[in-house]
Structure formats: structure tokens, C-alpha cells
Amino acid sequence: MEFSSLEFLFRFLPIFLIIYYLVPVKYKNPVLFFGSLVFYAMGSWKDALLLLFSMSLNYILVLLMDHIRRKSSRNTMLVILLCYNIGLLCIFKYTRLSLPLGISFYTFTMLSYVLDVYKKKTAALRDYLEYGTYILLFPKLISGPIAQFANMAGQLKKHPIRLEKIEHGLTLFIIGLGYKVIIANHLAILWRDIQGIGFESISTPLAWMGAFGYSAQLFFDFQGYSLMAIGIGEMLGFDLPKNFDHPYRSRTVSEFYRRWHITLGRWFRDYLYIPLGGNRKGNAWTFFNLLIVWVVTGMWHGSTINFPLWGLILFVFIALERFVIRNFLEKHGWLAHLYIWFVIPLTWVVFAITKLSDLKVYFARLFPFFGTGIAVNAGDYLKYGRTYGVFFLLAFVVSLPFMDKILKKCWKKWWMKAILFVVLWICIYQIANGLNNPFMYFSF
Questions:
Q1: Is 77 in contact with 64 (CB distance < 8 Å)?
Q2: Of residues 213 and 442, which shows the higher confidence score?
Q3: pLDDT tens, 36-71?
Q4: Cis, bond preceding 145 (omega within 30 deg of 0)
Q5: What stretches pass through the bilayer (predicted)?
Q6: Fewest beta carbons less than 10 Å away: which of 179, 233, 289, 334?
Q7: Cα–Cα distance between 275 and 373 in angstroms, integer?
Q8: pLDDT tens figures, 211-241
Q9: Percentages (nearest 5) of helix, strand, coil residues in the chain
Q10: Is pTM beyond 0.85 here?
């Protein structure tokens, strides 16, 4: 079930919130636990059984690990837990088995709990419902944000409901829904049209339009989901972590990924990069550790060859920035911005196209002096520019810095509420008329 579906908007969410707000505080975690399980099971009861099994196995083994005082035995238990969680994820990622919805995200959530308890950052939970609420919390269950256990432990015991938080959460939810339905869903049609035409037949301007369109689609799709998740979290009394911080304002690829999918980057930093040694062992080890992190990041996203290739390309740019061109980019801010707006869409093309043969053709259209095929209609970009130009413009306007300032200052104003009401009903109208796509990160 998706946040941008009529079933969620008019059935699940209202019924769940009414029950959640009416029950006494001591029953809120049980309502969250069972409500989240129902939410997930409505997609697939088989996947829900697998999730329950994995969650319960982790709960039992972590309790055992927490009771063990001997370091070698604790290490053995940790290896067992890591092998099970990572192994299960790899089995589904790299075989022909159907990928359970959200397994990449809830596996990292479970691993956060395992590793935080192992490192004694927090004690293992004895209360199964409290533990299960952390894992299953439905706003973040399927596509994040990935909330690390150490940062959520206190919130699981007390998540007060305040009218102002409900109001602000609803505001974030509607903005996220607008990003998804009004911007991302329309730009998704452009990318599908380009795929339908055939990469070898599009003009170079349309190829670039497609690269920028896919970049904007991915951003507003995932940013939209994250805002909706954070908004629902606020309505439930939780503060879920921020997942995006205007990545396209960055000046380096490294900065871009500190601002993009922040919770995933933080997870890899805390549980992979730093344990590997981070940048504490000199440049050679830093170089190697960055390589490992980015190849694993690519593999986490998918099993086809383009994903580790995408991760490897990002590693190359980040290594170049760190060891070669950092000073130049710091001194030439406007060139650094142009560099990001040029490089990042090209890397998203690698992310989007799973076959290397198709990827080669697309890059040949982007850079036609390498030559592969000709544009069947050299003026095709004019047609698509007229159709999708308004959505590119809208994406640009809502991304401007002053829009954040307006929202922070005016989200309680009556006219802002009127705008949000209109946005909500535009979204509902478009969803009712069939203009809806699955969230893109459901695939990962």
C-alpha cells in the first residue's frame, strides 16, 4: 500500500489515526505495532510473515548477545546475526526470488539495532512490542528514513501527541504528496516516452532533457516520500530524521551525498566506513575505504551491473575531489555548481539504465560526436519541452532557497493552508484519474 493511494489516504490512515489518538498512552505502541503490521501485510502477507520471522529471530539473538560477557562469544553471535541479515538480503537481491517490499530498508533498521547493542551504545530491549514498534513503524518501514536505534530508543517510550505537531506533520505530508503526484509522476511519463521511442532514435537535446527529467523525477519522488513519512511520524509523536537537505545546491559530489538520502549515508558512515578505519589510517586506506563503501552502496541498490558501476563512478569523482580538485572547486563556486548540475544527471543515467548496451547508446546520444545512430526527429525536444516544460519550471521554483523560508514562516497562515488544500485536492483528482506510479525506491 502506498502513501499516494486512495486506499491509504481515505481508508487506512484516517481509521488508524482515529484509533491511535483515542487509545490511552500505554496502548499506543501496541496500536502502532499491529497497525504497521496490517499496513505491510496489505501488500503481501507472505512478505509480512518473513518480516515477522526475521524481526523475532533478531530480537531473541540480540537478547542472548546482550547477556553474554565473554568477548569471543559476543563476536560469534554478532557474526551469526550479520550473516543472517546480510545473507537474507543478498539471497533476495541476487536471485530470481521476488524481492520483499522494503527489505533493504528494514534489514538496515535491524542491523542498526544489532550493532548499537553490540557496541553497548544502548541496551537490548526486553519489551517485544517496543522493539517491534521500532522495526515496523509504518511511516519509515518501506523506504525509510533509516532511523538508527540509538536515536529512536527514547522516542519509543514516550511519543506525546501535540496539536501543533499534528498540524505541521500534515503540512509536510501534503507537500510531499504534491512533490510525488504533481511533479515526479508527470516527469516519469517523459522518461517512459523516451524509453518507448528508443534511445538510438532521440535527439541530443531530448537525451539531455531526459537525463535532467529523470534526475528531477527521482529527487521529487524520494523527497516526496521522505516528507510524507516524516509528516506522518510527527502526527504520531515521533521525530524521524531528515533525509534530504537541498542536494542540488552542492558544490561537490561528496557534498551532494551528504545532502542526499542522508540517513543511508549516515548508516554507511557509522556502520561501515568508520569501522573500516575511515580516514584515520592515511590516504591509501581512506581511498580503499571509500571504494568499499561506494561499491557496497551501489550493490545495495540493485543486482544489475549498472548499480555497482554507478557506485564506482561516484567513488572516482569523490576520490578526485578529495585528492586532486578540492581546492579548485572551493575557489570557483559557480563552476562547482555547474560541475554538479552536469555530473549528477549523467550518473543518474547510469543508475536508471540497467543494460550496458542501452547505456552506451544513451551516452552516444548525449555526446553525438562519438556517434551511434541518428535522431529520427531532430525537433522532438520541442514537442516534449512544450509538454513538460511547466513541470521542470515548477520543480525549479519549489527548489529555490526562499521557498523554504516562506514555508517556515508562513505554514500557519490561512492563505498557506488554502494553497495546501488546493494541492491536496489536485493530487487526489490526479490519483483518482490514474496518474500514479509506485514510489521509485520501492524497487530497491
A1: yes
A2: 213
A3: 999 999 988 999 999 999 999 999 999 999 888 888
A4: yes
A5: 9-27, 47-65, 77-95, 101-119, 131-150, 170-191, 307-325, 334-353, 385-402, 414-432
A6: 334
A7: 48
A8: 999 999 999 999 999 999 999 999 999 999 9
A9: 80, 0, 20
A10: yes
Q: What is the pLDDT of residue 112?
A: 94
Classify each residue of 409-432 as buried b or exposed e, where b means 16 or more C-beta atoms within 10 Å of its C-beta. eeeeeeeebeebeebbeebbebbe
Show me where the domains of the chain are located. 6-158, 165-443
Q: What distances in angstroms separate CA 181 from CA 40, 169, 287, 420, one per listed residue?
A: 22, 18, 40, 14
Q: What is the pLDDT of residues 278-325, one digit of tens each?
A: 888 888 888 899 999 999 999 999 889 999 999 999 999 999 998 888
Comparing CA positions, the residue from 242, 243, 247, 295 lying closest to residue 272 is 295
CA dihedral 91→95→96→101, nearest 10 degrees, is 40
Name the residue among 256, 182, 105 with its Cα closest to residue 435: 182
More confidently predicted of 169 and 377: 169
How far apart CA 234 and CA 196 sit, in angstroms, is 41
DSSP letters, 123-166, are PPP--HHHHHHHHH-HHHHTT-----HHHHHHHHH-----HHHH
Active site residues: 301
| Residue in the block written with cell 523560508 | 405
Cell 481508508 belongs to which residue?
11
Identify the pLDDT of residue 180: 94
203: left (phi over 0), alpha (psi -120 to 50) or beta: beta
* In contact, 246 and 219? CB cutoff 8 Å: no
Reduced to 3 states (helix: H, G, I; strand: E, B; else coil), residue 98 is coil
Alpha-carbon 214 to chain mean position = 15
Lowest mean pLDDT among 125-139, 358-372, 415-429: 358-372
Of the candidates 250, 243, 208, the one whose C-alpha atom is nearest the C-alpha of residue 228 is 243
Cβ atoms of residues 275 and 296 within 8 Å: no
Q: Which helix (H) or strand (E) holds 303?
A: none
Cell of 269: 558512515
Q: State the Cα torsion 33-36-42-47 to the nearest 10°.
A: -70
The answer to whether the beta carbons of residues 205 and 381 sit under 8 Å apart is: yes
Residues 90-142 have pLDDT tens digits of 999 888 788 899 999 999 999 999 999 999 888 889 999 999 999 999 999 99
Provide the angle, in degrees to the nearest 10, between the axes of the packed helices 13-22 and 28-41: 170
